[in-house]
Amino acid sequence: MNNLIENTVEFVKEKLKGAEAGHDWYHIERVWKLSKKIAETENCNLEVVELAALLHDIADPKFHNGDETLALEVSRQFLERQYAAEDIIENVLFIIKNISFKNRAEAPENLPVELKIVQDADRIDAIGAIGIARTFNFGGFKNNLMYDPEIKPKLNMSKQEYKKSNGTTINHFYEKLLLLKDLMNTQKGKEIAADRHDFMLQFLDQFYKEWNVS
């Protein structure tokens, strides 16, 4: 591991102490590992991939009053202190700016492979058993209802609607999680996502059986 990556790991660990459990260092670590796994199958700049994976949630807008510029500022300041090359900084910031699900309609065409890799890794960590655990943890953090049969999922929400949404945790599966499998960019990402997607479908099936005491 080079010094820049090592220093970034230490910086992120310190910065995210006490963060909500679905967006803490362990989330970052999983995305980092997944990114490296996917990168093995792609022709890419691995340093950009690793740095973007490590910094992508350094200041998640959900926990900073919706501010989408803070993560870019924090990341640039950190990378400049590390004397990272300007082209590396620009590429990492581009990924941080365009990675999120809610910003997908605003993302430019012909995305660089490094963004595709980190985006897939981040989305994979949002599905499967880990995704289910993170979703219910965040729902509890927001004090959202777990499920209400009377409240239907809101499909095709705009970015602003999505940011303001306080729907049920189960609805979040239909509003985001079950859509992610078909949004994967890389072949490796698609393979990993397919297995996790099936697990979520099994979970939902069991959830409804137990909810309805069938």
UniProtKB/TrEMBL annotation:
Q: Which parts of the chain are coiled coil?
A: none
* Ranges of residues in domain HD: 24-127
Report the Gene3D superfamilies cross-referenced here.
Answer: 1.20.58.1910, HD-domain/PDEase-like (1.10.472.50)
Which InterPro entries does the entry link to?
HD/PDEase_dom (IPR003607), HD_domain (IPR006674)
Q: Give the protein name, as stated in the record.
A: HD domain-containing protein
Species the sequence originates in = Chryseobacterium profundimaris
